[in-house]
Amino acid sequence: MEINMEKEPITLNGLNRLKSELNDLKNNQRPKVVEAIAEARSHGDLKENAEYHAAKEQQAMNEAKISDLEDKLSRADVIDITKLSGNIVKFGAMVTLIDEDTEKEAKYQIVGEFESNISEGLLSISSPIARALIGKTIGDSVEVATPGGGKSYEIIKIKYE
């Protein structure tokens, strides 16, 4: 397994979500899995005990998630976006865009890779649209190559909160 030691930018909200998920995995999920293994073990022969094998598999997945989150937290470079301001798009910006073809409005916050979630409007800084937006200002148009072809967006609002 290749280990990436590079720091990754993250917002305070993103850091808190990762910590909360890690806490849940360690303090809620881990004891439940251990209990399920003990319960399955009490049923006897482990070779043909599907419950035992399923619980062990669940334990391995839980431990892998814990390791992954601990790795992400160790590489997290927290950026306090409450101290950022201005009218240039950078990490942490809440950007409101208008799709120049459909006139639909979209709102995204540019966040770190670890916390991105497009359905929540959290756009990874390494995504094509975020890369196109970085350094731009209100009124600028950006072209973004998407799987469905090129899209044009106009930046109508930039906010840091």
Model description:
The protein is α/β, with parallel strands linked by helices and 161 residues long. 39% of the residues lie in helices and 24% in strands. It has helices at residues 12-41, 50-75, 128-133, and strands at residues 8-10, 76-78, 94-99, 105-111, 122-124, 141-146, 149-159. The strands form two sheets. It has a five-stranded mixed beta sheet with strand order 5-4-3-7-6. A two-stranded parallel sheet has the order 1-2. A hairpin with a 5-residue loop joins strand 3 and strand 4. Helix 1 packs antiparallel against helix 2 (50-75). It is elongated. It starts with 7 loop residues before the first strand and ends with a strand. The model has no long low-confidence stretch (mean pLDDT 91).
In short:
The protein is 39% helix and 24% strand.
* Proportion of residues in β-strands: 15-25%
Note the run of SSEs as H and E. EHHEEEEHEE
Number of strands: 7
Strand order of the largest sheet: 5-4-3-7-6
Write down the overall mean pLDDT.
91
What descriptors fit this protein?
161 residues; 3 helices; 24% strand; single chain; two-stranded parallel sheet; 39% helix; elongated; alpha/beta
List the helices and strands and how they pair.
Blueprint: E1 8-10, H1 12-41, H2 50-75, E2 76-78, E3 94-99, E4 105-111, E5 122-124, H3 128-133, E6 141-146, E7 149-159
Parallel strand pairs: 1-2, 4-5
Antiparallel strand pairs: 3-4, 3-7, 6-7
Helix pairs in contact: 1-2
